[in-house]
Amino acid sequence: MPTDNPTAVRLLIVEDSEADYLLIQRQLRTEGMVFESLRVDHFDAVDKALEQPWDVILYDYEIPGLDFDDALPLIKSRATDTPIILVSGTVDERMAAGLLRQGLDDFVLKDKLLRLSTAIDRVRRERLERSGRLAAEAELRKLAMVVEQSPASILITDTRPAIEYVNDAFVQNTGYEPEEVIGRNPSVLNTGNTPASTYRALWSALNQGQTWRGEFYNTRKDGSVYVEAAVVAPIRQVDGSISHYVAIKDDITAQRESEALIHRLAFYDQLTGLANRSLLMERLDQAMNKCRKAGQQGAVLMLDIDSFRFINDIHGYDIGDHVLREFGRRLQRELADTDTVARIGGNHFAVIVERLGATEAEVTDRIKQLTTRLHERVQQPCNLPDGSGQLRHATSMGICLFDGHEEGPETPLNRAELALQKAKDDGRNMARQFSHELKVQVEERALMEARLRSAVINRELDMHLQSQFDIEGRLLGAELLLRWPQADGSFISPMVFIPLAEVTGLILPIGQQVFDQAIKLLQDWQSKPATRSLQLSINVSARQFHQPDFVDQLRTRLQKSTIDGSRLVLELTESVVLDEFGSTGEKMRAIRELGVGIALDDFGKGYSSLSYLKHLPFDVLKIDRSFIADMLASPSSEAIVRAILAMGHALKMHIIAEGVENEAQWDLLRRERCAGYQGYLFARPVGMDQWQPGDFSANGSPSAQVNRKE
Ligand code: C2E
Ligand code: CA
Ligand code: CA
């Protein structure tokens, strides 16, 4: 029976003769073989023995009751790889040849047992070699499958290099069938997109027997270009010589495309294609470094398209987008390629200009030239994409110079932003350069804005009334004027805070409050006989008037109240009309339909075009107080006042002279039959509680007296 000696050769000996068995054992021992053996002599024993593994089976051909022809298939099926040696006294050579064909590995005649150990060694060696070879083949088969089915493109060339093999992935990816590329140079895939330096690096590595990693920009059969990450390695023979090259390649086109997209999204503005804020910061940082090293100055400019909101509101977002793109293009055209133009959000743009010069004077001069050029270029009318007309817009600019010694790119950028703020505060369409005084001014203004905001929210603005009289001195009504009371008991003038409210948009809630107050006051007036027929004038800013729902709001307010619309007069300035002619007329007519009157305020102060007086339905004209003030001293002012009065009469307009401060002015205006009067001579604006209705007479009526001392 076999033991556990791992080096022993395990022999199963099918032999009916005990004597022969001993003979075989003795022979093998004399040969020095270490073995373990088991003798079996009938079919069932053979069957049982085959449950264990054997190195070699020795078989005596002639065993009564155990037919070799039956036993051989059994042995072959149960011990596939176990060699069988026939040990027999009778087999002739011819018969043996037949048996060998049936799967027998060798035969030894009993009288030639000397051969047995050699035969055992030989069949065992052959067996081992065979299984080794099988394993190697299986290994190769496995490898081939990996190569065939690999998701990576695999290409094998000889050393010329001509393609010898391509796998399925290659076929899928390139669109070339194997027969179209085999025998050809892999450069069939390259149509000039891969830089020559890549190939130099590739061959230099391969010639040194090294593996190369890199990227190819190759072309598919259909002409489309793709990017491959490749590993190319030489294949060596046993003797060390290179026989082949193998390239394993991954298509990374999609990955590259998404990387490029991510890069574009991360650093470029999608609408204009300009740099975005991140890229601007990066470039500014680089520009600062360069300036520091070169001892030069650069500048960062921040630009806003003035009143851009209106472009969007009035013309829609498509036109707004068009204007933004065009604005970006114009900036780019005026600047060098090395300068950076960025859109950093909304209608905010920024520009970096490098190396403007070394001295402050030189730089300031060049900046002035640049901003003038930009202003001119930007103001040129811009054609609307649908051919429906042209748009013009102005721009405000904030400038900050830098020499690279600032803390970081945020510093010059924030300063430019501050300067831009100042340009806007000062009335837009201008450029301002950062300085420390400018910073103080902007901060003060920001503080004031915050205080105004809270005053509006807390309804702290006061309303004063200034009486208006007719030519006989009879009370016509009053104008409502705002005051901003301060903690120390003083007031801030609306001349100061109204412009601020207009830029910040606070004028809208302020306007609501004025309307609320006006309606309340008129309601009160209507309930008393003394005030029932008075008119109340209120001031309306362009920004309020251009609210799309301005007329609707007014209508709703009037409908909710019981007041007579004709008791209310809206005072508009020329700026309302100048902004936008077309829809202004419609709006005004809609207001007049509500019975509400419209006055043109400050007439004579601005352009004073007569054309809109004729075309727009004003019913009151207020002569600006600067003309009244100059009237007596300046003949031309007097002529203008006379002309306005004559024209007003002709157009059947009610004319009110503003700022009448003395009797001489009053006399002159009365002689010219001016219908209405407002001014310190008659009444100063007073708090609503102090205001009292009363006619004016030169010797002074008691009620007018009250109003005269503000
Ligand atoms: P305005 O509409 O032209 O108002 C008349 C201004 O002239 C008032 O100044 C008034 O106090 C002043 N005034 C009246 N009589 C005389 C006079 O005889 N001599 C002189 N030197 N001045 C006189 P105020 O109240 O400071 O208002 C200034 C401007 O603020 C107003 O000019 C108006 O444009 C604006 N404003 C006032 N209240 C409002 C408001 O509720 N809404 C809007 N949008 N603007 C307002
Ligand atoms: Ca007014
Ligand atoms: Ca006025």
Architecture overview:
33% of the residues are buried. The protein is built from 26 helices and 27 strands. Strand 19 and strand 20 form a beta hairpin. Helix 11 runs antiparallel to helix 12 and helix 12 runs antiparallel to helix 13. The protein has four domains: 134 residues, Rossmann fold; 108 residues, PAS domain (Beta-Lactamase, 2-Layer Sandwich); 167 residues, Reverse transcriptase/Diguanylate cyclase domain (Alpha-Beta Plaits, 2-Layer Sandwich), CATH 3.30.70; 236 residues, TIM Barrel (Alpha-Beta Barrel), CATH 3.20.20.450. The site of one calcium ion has 4 residues, from strand 23. One calcium ion (CA) binds next to loops.
Please render the helix and strand layout as text.
Layout: E1 9-14, H1 18-30, E2 35-40, H2 43-49, E3 56-59, H3 68-78, E4 84-88, H4 93-101, E5 106-109, H5 116-149, E6 153-158, E7 163-166, H6 168-174, H7 178-181, H8 196-207, E8 212-219, E9 225-236, E10 242-251, H9 253-267, H10 277-294, E11 297-305, H11 308-315, H12 317-334, E12 340-345, E13 348-357, H13 360-379, E14 382-383, E15 390-391, E16 395-402, H14 410-425, E17 431-433, H15 436-457, E18 462-470, E19 475-485, E20 491-492, H16 494-504, H17 507-526, E21 535-539, H18 542-545, H19 550-560, E22 568-572, H20 574-579, H21 581-593, E23 597-603, H22 610-615, E24 620-623, H23 625-630, H24 635-650, E25 654-657, H25 663-671, E26 676-677, E27 686-687, H26 702-708
Parallel strand pairs: 1-2, 1-3, 3-4, 4-5, 16-17, 19-21, 21-22, 22-23, 23-24, 24-25, 25-26
Antiparallel strand pairs: 6-7, 6-10, 8-9, 9-10, 11-13, 11-16, 12-13, 14-15, 18-19, 18-26, 18-27, 19-20
The site of one calcium ion has 4 residues, from loops.
